[in-house]
# Entry
Amino acid sequence: MKRVAVILAVMLVSLCLVGNVWADEKQKVVDVCKKAAEAIKADPAAALCEINKKDGKFVDGDLYVFVMNMDGVMMAHPVKPALIGKNLYDFKDKAGNAFFKKFVEVAKDKGSGWVDYKWPKPGEDGIFDKTSYILMVEDSPMFVGAGIYK
# Structure
């Protein structure tokens, strides 16, 4: 009986720690999006240039900021530069989820929020579960986003 109680206690503590790490990662995403939005508001051209840098200040491992406009056109993407200038509004992930459309809707309707989808992980093969935070840039036709893999 004591052994079961110890195992359950260890599992509970582990779940709490994982939950705290997940909350910290999500806060990191929100913070980097806010910094990117502030940079765009201050100097859009310079900010887009910096966001597009694969080794820039808006990239940290597999966490990176991207920028889109309200039509669904990718304005900046440091990991997949081939997406820049493309209208992705109707693009769907492997599960049939039109997540770029959801990005636009979140930015337009709520100003910010989270969207779940499937996306390739930089440097790895396959498609992974990902969630991105979307944040409308004040007084701009653009929004920023950044995500974390689940």
Summary: The longest helix spans residues 2-42. Residues 81 and 96 are 23 Å apart (CA to CA). Strands lie at 59-60, 63-69, 74-76, 112-120, 127-136, 142-149. Helices lie at 2-42, 44-51, 99-109.
